[in-house]
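Supplementary notes for students who missed Thursday's class. We covered one full example, reproduced here. Read the sequence, then the structure, then the short commentary at the end.
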Amino acid sequence: MYLWIKENRYKRLNRFMPILKRKMVGIANYFGLPDNSLSVMRINDFIFHTLYKWLNRRSQRRSFNWQGMKEMLGYFEIRPMRVRKRAIVVDWY
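Structure (token representation):
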């Protein structure tokens, strides 16, 4: 994910962010199993910090502060990843 963000940071946000959102949904679906919340939280923090770092390097001046970053993520409806609910196990005899 780090390399993908770094290599695609030059793209317009209206094209870049929907792809990032889809990638995050895929990661959440794969890793978001019960009892894996710590790992999902770490992946989420890593993605947001990487995004913040590389979007701020797109120009000669700083593009975002954390408040602006939160607003931009809200605009594109990118939310932190969550762990799925526990599966209900039914024993059939």
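Commentary. Residues 13-31 form the longest helix (19 residues). Residues 14-75 form one domain. If anything here is unclear, bring it to office hours.
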